[in-house]
Amino acid sequence: MNVTGSWSAAEANSFLAETTVPIRVACRTPGGGLWMLSLWFLPCDGSLWCATGADADVVRYLDHDDGVSFEVSTNDPPYRGVRGAGTATVEPDHDKSLLRALFDRYLGGTDNGLGDRLLRADRDEVRIRIDPDRLYTWDFTERMHDAVE
């Protein structure tokens, strides 16, 4: 994988592991339009794993065209992050183990109303694995040092 920008591959991977903002994923619709959505993600073994309902529009879109671009970036100054492009693979998450891991990462567990709703036995869940081909990193910490209290 090609990594360019402010950070090394190790630094980019560390940022992805430590940052718990949603990933923004862009793909193409079957009609050729552009689509973007935000999903929780979990980095593992060089891939970025997301979960969503099996009936979500993005599942159909990725079945049509598996090319994606994405961004994970901080929402407050100093701005920094990782963006890239790659391919996405969709597979069932029958036991919802990825979804449970995402709840642990983002909310500290599944004991909440959202967990009750998304983990229902009658709800079909899928995993989306994003395999990056290239990453670009940026870090505006130095040039924004006076924008942060």
How big is the Rg? 16 Å
Please state the structural category.
alpha+beta
DSSP strand content: 35-45%
Instruction: State the end-to-end CA separation.
Output: 36 Å
N-to-C order of helices and strands: EHEEEEHEEHHE
The low-confidence parts are none
In DSSP terms, counting alpha (H) and pi (I) runs of 4 or more, how many helices? 4
Helical content stands at 10-25%
Mind summarizing the main beta sheet? 8 strands, mixed
Instruction: State the shape.
Output: globular
Residue-averaged pLDDT: 93
Find the count of extended strands (DSSP E, 2+ residues).
Answer: 8
Would you kindly provide a written description of the structure presented here, covering whatever features stand out?
The chain is α+β, with helices and mostly antiparallel strands and 149 residues long. Helix content is 23%, strand content 42%. It has helices spanning 9-18, 57-64, 97-107, 113-118, and strands at 2-5, 23-28, 34-39, 41-44, 47-53, 67-73, 80-92, 125-139. Strands 1, 2, 3, 4, 5, 6, 7 and 8 form an eight-stranded mixed beta sheet that branches. Strand 2 (23-28) and strand 3 (34-39) form a beta hairpin. The termini are far apart. The model has no long low-confidence stretch (mean pLDDT 93).
